[in-house]
Design brief:
295 residues, alpha/beta, eight-stranded parallel beta sheet, two-stranded antiparallel sheet, binds phosphoenolpyruvate, binds manganese (II) ion
Length: 295
Protein backbone atom coordinates (compact mmCIF):
# COMPACT_ATOMS: atom_id res chain seq x y z
CA UNK A 1 0.00 0.00 0.00
CA UNK A 2 1.74 3.13 -1.17
CA UNK A 3 0.89 6.67 -2.06
CA UNK A 4 2.69 7.77 -5.19
CA UNK A 5 5.11 4.88 -4.76
CA UNK A 6 6.88 6.49 -1.84
CA UNK A 7 4.99 6.41 1.43
CA UNK A 8 3.82 3.18 3.00
CA UNK A 9 1.86 2.38 6.08
CA UNK A 10 2.98 -1.20 6.16
CA UNK A 11 1.84 -2.08 9.66
CA UNK A 12 -1.68 -0.83 9.03
CA UNK A 13 -3.13 -4.25 8.15
CA UNK A 14 -2.01 -5.36 11.64
CA UNK A 15 -3.16 -2.21 13.45
CA UNK A 16 -6.49 -1.76 11.69
CA UNK A 17 -7.34 -4.93 9.74
CA UNK A 18 -11.08 -4.26 9.91
CA UNK A 19 -10.70 -0.87 8.28
CA UNK A 20 -7.81 -0.85 5.88
CA UNK A 21 -8.33 -1.35 2.19
CA UNK A 22 -5.54 -3.85 1.84
CA UNK A 23 -7.15 -6.40 4.15
CA UNK A 24 -10.66 -5.76 2.80
CA UNK A 25 -10.38 -6.44 -0.94
CA UNK A 26 -14.09 -5.84 -1.69
CA UNK A 27 -13.47 -2.13 -1.11
CA UNK A 28 -10.66 -2.08 -3.65
CA UNK A 29 -8.88 1.23 -4.08
CA UNK A 30 -11.88 3.49 -4.32
CA UNK A 31 -15.06 2.23 -2.64
CA UNK A 32 -16.19 4.18 0.43
CA UNK A 33 -18.25 2.78 3.29
CA UNK A 34 -21.33 4.98 3.51
CA UNK A 35 -22.25 6.13 7.02
CA UNK A 36 -25.89 7.10 7.44
CA UNK A 37 -27.16 9.46 10.12
CA UNK A 38 -30.88 9.72 9.54
CA UNK A 39 -31.18 10.79 5.93
CA UNK A 40 -27.64 12.20 5.87
CA UNK A 41 -25.08 10.08 4.04
CA UNK A 42 -21.35 10.48 4.55
CA UNK A 43 -19.18 9.10 1.77
CA UNK A 44 -21.66 9.26 -1.06
CA UNK A 45 -23.28 12.09 -2.95
CA UNK A 46 -22.71 15.66 -1.91
CA UNK A 47 -20.33 16.62 0.89
CA UNK A 48 -22.03 16.80 4.28
CA UNK A 49 -21.94 20.10 6.17
CA UNK A 50 -22.23 19.86 9.95
CA UNK A 51 -22.52 23.26 11.62
CA UNK A 52 -23.47 24.78 14.93
CA UNK A 53 -22.13 26.46 18.02
CA UNK A 54 -18.96 25.32 19.73
CA UNK A 55 -20.93 24.80 22.93
CA UNK A 56 -24.56 24.75 23.92
CA UNK A 57 -24.43 27.83 26.11
CA UNK A 58 -28.09 28.82 26.29
CA UNK A 59 -31.34 27.57 24.83
CA UNK A 60 -31.83 30.82 22.95
CA UNK A 61 -28.32 30.90 21.44
CA UNK A 62 -28.47 27.26 20.35
CA UNK A 63 -31.89 27.63 18.74
CA UNK A 64 -30.83 30.80 16.92
CA UNK A 65 -27.74 29.10 15.50
CA UNK A 66 -29.64 25.91 14.67
CA UNK A 67 -32.15 27.95 12.67
CA UNK A 68 -29.29 29.66 10.83
CA UNK A 69 -27.79 26.27 9.99
CA UNK A 70 -31.15 25.10 8.69
CA UNK A 71 -31.64 28.28 6.62
CA UNK A 72 -28.16 27.91 5.15
CA UNK A 73 -29.00 24.37 4.03
CA UNK A 74 -26.62 22.65 6.45
CA UNK A 75 -27.08 18.91 6.87
CA UNK A 76 -26.46 18.38 10.59
CA UNK A 77 -26.28 20.35 13.82
CA UNK A 78 -23.26 20.26 16.13
CA UNK A 79 -22.86 21.66 19.64
CA UNK A 80 -21.04 20.52 22.76
CA UNK A 81 -23.04 19.82 25.90
CA UNK A 82 -19.97 18.33 27.59
CA UNK A 83 -16.91 20.43 26.74
CA UNK A 84 -13.24 19.43 27.07
CA UNK A 85 -11.68 22.72 28.24
CA UNK A 86 -8.00 23.32 28.83
CA UNK A 87 -8.70 24.99 32.16
CA UNK A 88 -11.05 23.48 34.73
CA UNK A 89 -11.98 27.06 35.61
CA UNK A 90 -13.54 27.64 32.18
CA UNK A 91 -17.16 26.90 31.23
CA UNK A 92 -17.45 23.12 31.09
CA UNK A 93 -20.68 22.89 29.10
CA UNK A 94 -24.25 22.61 30.22
CA UNK A 95 -24.41 18.80 30.46
CA UNK A 96 -27.79 17.11 30.50
CA UNK A 97 -29.59 20.43 30.11
CA UNK A 98 -27.52 21.02 26.96
CA UNK A 99 -28.51 17.63 25.58
CA UNK A 100 -32.17 18.57 26.10
CA UNK A 101 -31.62 21.82 24.24
CA UNK A 102 -30.04 19.93 21.35
CA UNK A 103 -32.98 17.56 21.23
CA UNK A 104 -35.34 20.54 21.05
CA UNK A 105 -33.29 22.07 18.23
CA UNK A 106 -33.44 18.80 16.32
CA UNK A 107 -37.20 18.59 16.81
CA UNK A 108 -37.67 22.08 15.46
CA UNK A 109 -35.24 21.99 12.55
CA UNK A 110 -35.19 18.30 11.66
CA UNK A 111 -31.39 18.41 11.64
CA UNK A 112 -29.69 15.32 13.09
CA UNK A 113 -27.40 16.17 16.00
CA UNK A 114 -23.81 15.26 16.74
CA UNK A 115 -22.38 16.00 20.16
CA UNK A 116 -19.30 15.01 22.10
CA UNK A 117 -19.16 12.34 24.76
CA UNK A 118 -16.12 12.56 27.02
CA UNK A 119 -16.81 9.96 29.66
CA UNK A 120 -17.50 6.26 29.15
CA UNK A 121 -20.04 6.46 31.99
CA UNK A 122 -22.10 8.96 30.00
CA UNK A 123 -22.22 7.18 26.64
CA UNK A 124 -25.68 5.77 27.22
CA UNK A 125 -27.02 9.16 28.25
CA UNK A 126 -25.54 11.03 25.29
CA UNK A 127 -26.66 8.30 22.88
CA UNK A 128 -30.21 8.78 24.08
CA UNK A 129 -30.18 12.40 22.88
CA UNK A 130 -27.75 12.45 19.94
CA UNK A 131 -27.92 10.94 16.47
CA UNK A 132 -24.14 10.67 16.25
CA UNK A 133 -21.52 10.51 19.01
CA UNK A 134 -18.41 12.65 18.76
CA UNK A 135 -15.08 11.59 20.19
CA UNK A 136 -12.94 14.69 20.65
CA UNK A 137 -9.31 15.12 19.83
CA UNK A 138 -8.26 14.86 23.46
CA UNK A 139 -9.98 11.50 23.84
CA UNK A 140 -8.95 9.86 20.59
CA UNK A 141 -6.82 7.36 22.50
CA UNK A 142 -9.21 6.80 25.40
CA UNK A 143 -9.63 3.14 24.55
CA UNK A 144 -12.34 2.21 27.09
CA UNK A 145 -14.39 5.19 25.80
CA UNK A 146 -13.89 4.06 22.20
CA UNK A 147 -15.06 0.55 23.05
CA UNK A 148 -18.09 1.95 24.84
CA UNK A 149 -19.17 4.13 21.90
CA UNK A 150 -18.59 1.14 19.66
CA UNK A 151 -21.33 -0.63 21.59
CA UNK A 152 -23.75 2.31 21.76
CA UNK A 153 -25.58 1.64 18.51
CA UNK A 154 -24.88 5.10 17.10
CA UNK A 155 -22.61 6.31 14.31
CA UNK A 156 -19.40 7.88 15.59
CA UNK A 157 -17.47 10.98 14.55
CA UNK A 158 -13.87 10.29 15.51
CA UNK A 159 -11.72 13.39 15.61
CA UNK A 160 -8.00 13.02 15.07
CA UNK A 161 -5.85 13.44 18.15
CA UNK A 162 -3.99 16.73 17.81
CA UNK A 163 -0.66 14.91 17.81
CA UNK A 164 -1.78 11.59 16.37
CA UNK A 165 -0.24 9.88 13.37
CA UNK A 166 -2.51 8.37 10.75
CA UNK A 167 -1.71 4.89 12.07
CA UNK A 168 -2.70 5.89 15.62
CA UNK A 169 -5.92 7.48 14.36
CA UNK A 170 -6.92 4.41 12.39
CA UNK A 171 -5.94 2.22 15.34
CA UNK A 172 -8.38 4.23 17.45
CA UNK A 173 -11.10 3.73 14.84
CA UNK A 174 -10.35 0.01 14.94
CA UNK A 175 -11.30 -0.06 18.65
CA UNK A 176 -14.77 1.14 17.67
CA UNK A 177 -15.01 -1.21 14.70
CA UNK A 178 -13.98 -4.13 16.89
CA UNK A 179 -17.26 -3.75 18.78
CA UNK A 180 -19.14 -4.39 15.56
CA UNK A 181 -19.73 -0.75 14.67
CA UNK A 182 -18.31 0.29 11.31
CA UNK A 183 -20.31 3.49 11.19
CA UNK A 184 -17.32 5.72 11.80
CA UNK A 185 -16.58 9.07 10.16
CA UNK A 186 -13.05 10.38 10.64
CA UNK A 187 -12.51 14.11 11.21
CA UNK A 188 -9.24 15.96 10.65
CA UNK A 189 -9.14 18.96 13.03
CA UNK A 190 -5.59 20.25 12.83
CA UNK A 191 -2.39 19.03 14.41
CA UNK A 192 0.34 20.38 16.66
CA UNK A 193 3.10 20.81 14.11
CA UNK A 194 6.04 23.09 14.91
CA UNK A 195 4.36 26.35 13.87
CA UNK A 196 1.04 25.65 15.60
CA UNK A 197 -0.02 28.63 17.65
CA UNK A 198 2.10 31.15 15.73
CA UNK A 199 -0.32 32.22 12.97
CA UNK A 200 -3.13 29.72 13.47
CA UNK A 201 -4.34 27.56 16.32
CA UNK A 202 -3.29 24.24 14.80
CA UNK A 203 -1.92 23.21 11.41
CA UNK A 204 -4.64 21.94 9.09
CA UNK A 205 -3.26 18.73 7.65
CA UNK A 206 -5.02 18.36 4.32
CA UNK A 207 -2.51 15.80 3.09
CA UNK A 208 -3.95 13.36 5.59
CA UNK A 209 -7.37 13.58 3.92
CA UNK A 210 -5.88 12.20 0.74
CA UNK A 211 -3.97 9.56 2.70
CA UNK A 212 -7.03 8.49 4.74
CA UNK A 213 -8.90 7.85 1.52
CA UNK A 214 -6.00 5.84 0.20
CA UNK A 215 -5.66 3.60 3.25
CA UNK A 216 -9.18 3.11 4.56
CA UNK A 217 -12.69 2.93 3.18
CA UNK A 218 -14.13 5.06 5.99
CA UNK A 219 -15.40 8.54 5.07
CA UNK A 220 -13.39 11.52 6.28
CA UNK A 221 -14.40 15.13 6.95
CA UNK A 222 -12.50 18.27 7.95
CA UNK A 223 -13.07 20.73 10.79
CA UNK A 224 -11.44 23.98 9.61
CA UNK A 225 -12.71 25.86 12.67
CA UNK A 226 -10.52 24.15 15.27
CA UNK A 227 -7.76 23.52 12.72
CA UNK A 228 -7.25 27.22 12.06
CA UNK A 229 -8.80 28.95 15.07
CA UNK A 230 -9.27 31.98 12.82
CA UNK A 231 -12.73 32.82 11.50
CA UNK A 232 -11.37 34.43 8.31
CA UNK A 233 -9.52 31.23 7.38
CA UNK A 234 -12.53 28.93 7.77
CA UNK A 235 -14.15 29.56 4.39
CA UNK A 236 -11.04 29.20 2.21
CA UNK A 237 -9.90 26.20 4.26
CA UNK A 238 -13.31 24.60 3.69
CA UNK A 239 -12.91 24.91 -0.06
CA UNK A 240 -9.40 23.50 0.10
CA UNK A 241 -10.57 20.56 2.19
CA UNK A 242 -13.22 19.63 -0.35
CA UNK A 243 -10.67 19.87 -3.16
CA UNK A 244 -8.50 17.42 -1.27
CA UNK A 245 -11.31 14.86 -1.17
CA UNK A 246 -13.02 15.56 2.14
CA UNK A 247 -16.50 14.03 2.39
CA UNK A 248 -17.72 16.93 4.47
CA UNK A 249 -17.04 19.79 6.84
CA UNK A 250 -17.66 20.66 10.46
CA UNK A 251 -18.08 24.39 11.00
CA UNK A 252 -18.50 26.43 14.19
CA UNK A 253 -21.06 29.20 13.85
CA UNK A 254 -22.17 32.02 16.15
CA UNK A 255 -24.96 34.57 16.22
CA UNK A 256 -22.97 37.57 17.38
CA UNK A 257 -26.11 39.67 17.79
CA UNK A 258 -26.73 37.61 20.94
CA UNK A 259 -23.33 38.47 22.37
CA UNK A 260 -19.92 36.88 22.19
CA UNK A 261 -19.92 33.11 22.81
CA UNK A 262 -17.91 31.95 25.83
CA UNK A 263 -16.33 29.21 23.79
CA UNK A 264 -14.14 29.58 20.67
CA UNK A 265 -15.59 32.94 19.57
CA UNK A 266 -12.49 33.81 17.48
CA UNK A 267 -13.06 30.92 15.12
CA UNK A 268 -16.85 31.10 14.75
CA UNK A 269 -18.21 32.26 11.40
CA UNK A 270 -21.46 34.16 10.97
CA UNK A 271 -24.56 32.93 9.15
CA UNK A 272 -23.64 34.66 5.87
CA UNK A 273 -20.29 32.93 5.73
CA UNK A 274 -21.94 29.60 6.51
CA UNK A 275 -24.36 30.21 3.63
CA UNK A 276 -21.46 30.56 1.22
CA UNK A 277 -19.68 27.49 2.58
CA UNK A 278 -22.80 25.33 2.24
CA UNK A 279 -23.45 26.65 -1.26
CA UNK A 280 -19.92 25.83 -2.29
CA UNK A 281 -20.11 22.34 -0.77
CA UNK A 282 -23.51 21.53 -2.21
CA UNK A 283 -22.88 22.84 -5.69
CA UNK A 284 -19.99 20.56 -6.20
CA UNK A 285 -20.12 17.39 -8.15
CA UNK A 286 -20.44 14.25 -6.09
CA UNK A 287 -17.44 13.47 -3.93
CA UNK A 288 -14.55 12.26 -6.07
CA UNK A 289 -15.16 8.56 -6.26
CA UNK A 290 -12.36 7.29 -4.14
CA UNK A 291 -8.78 7.03 -3.20
CA UNK A 292 -6.51 8.58 -5.74
CA UNK A 293 -3.08 7.36 -6.71
CA UNK A 294 -2.89 4.26 -4.56
CA UNK A 295 -0.67 1.51 -5.87
C1 LIG B 1 -15.30 20.21 19.24
O1 LIG B 1 -15.46 19.90 18.05
O2 LIG B 1 -16.24 20.60 19.96
C2 LIG B 1 -13.97 20.10 19.85
C3 LIG B 1 -13.79 20.28 21.15
O3 LIG B 1 -12.99 19.84 18.98
P1 LIG B 1 -11.61 19.03 19.20
O4 LIG B 1 -11.94 17.81 19.99
O5 LIG B 1 -11.17 18.74 17.80
O6 LIG B 1 -10.68 19.97 19.91
MN1 LIG C 1 -14.91 24.65 19.67
Amino acid sequence: MKIAGQFTLDDLPDVAPLLCRRSNPPYGATRTWVVEVGSVRFGEGLPVVIAGPCAVETHHQTLAVARAVKRAGGDMLRGGAYKPRTSPHDFQGSGLEGLRVLRGARQETGLPVVTEVMDARRVEQVAEYADMLQIGSRNMQNYPLLAEVGRAGRPVLLKRGMAASLGEWLGAAEYIAQQGNLDIVLCERGIKAFAAGEYSRFILDLNVVFAVRAYTFLPVIVDPSHATGVAAMVEPASRAALEMGSHGLMIEVADFSLGRPQCDAEQAVDAETLDRIVKFAHHRQQCPSGAPAVV
